[in-house]
Structures are given as C-alpha cells and as structure tokens.
Amino acid sequence: MKFLYQSFEAKRKEIIEVEIDRSTKVRFMTGRNLKAYRQGRTFSYHGGLFEESPVRFVVPFDSVWTVVVEKGTYANPEEVHAQCKLLNPNNKVRSSIAVDAPPSVREHELAEAGEDIADHTAELGAASKSEG
After folding, report:
1. DSSP label of 21
2. pTM of this prediction?
3. Which of 12, 16, 35, 61 has the most crowded CB, counting CB atoms within 10 A?
4. Which residues of the chain are modeled with pLDDT < 70?
5. In this structure, are residues 12 and 60 in contact, taking their beta carbons and an 8 Å threshold?
6. CA 130 to each of CA 28, 60, 99, 106: distance values in angstroms, whole numbers, following the listed order
C-alpha cells in the first residue's frame, strides 16, 4: 500500500490540519503505531475516511504524531495530494469526525459540542480505532 506521511512533535490541544484533494483515509498515530502499521501488524489510530477538507485533529497528549494519508488500496491505488500543518491551540476549532466513525463517537462529540444530534450533519470529532 502506498501512503503519504508527515510527523509533528505536538503538545496536548495543538491542532494538526490536513488538506486533502479527494476522499481518502487520514490516520493520526504515534511512532509505535506507525511502526506496526508499516509492518502490517495490529495498530491503533485516530481518524478514518474523510470526504471533505480540511481534516482537523486536536492532539490528546504530548508526543510525536504522524499523519498518514492513504493513497487508495494495494489493488486500486489512487493519486492523492495532501498538505499538513500544525496549528496553535484554539478553543473554537473542533476535531473532524471520520465518515466511518462509530455512531457512539459521533453522538459523544456532538453532545460535547452542545448541538442537536438529529439536525447536525457537519463533521466534528476524531474516531479512535485499531486495525490488524
């Protein structure tokens, strides 16, 4: 599988913003999980499939965080372009929720934002998952 990646030494509450030019999987992970991802082992990440740009991730704890943007699948590679940047903490900026995030994650993030879940269609929070 081909993918783009960039690492940031980020502190809690800083924001990693990713601009993508097409629908793709964007994953945020620490160094240990990146190593497991590259080796095809079980790994954990925040994020998922995003259809709109920008994708924003609020860093949950101090660490070196890596953004991984997948370029399709092994059988069906795609040309994807992405740009990443680290932003200062900002209470008005919310995380983006992945399209494939579990419903419980969406409901939790929307409830925290104080918005009506039934009427809300925008994306706001990051899902955390494991794959392997």
Report:
1. S
2. 0.75
3. 16
4. 110, 112-132
5. yes
6. 12, 17, 16, 17
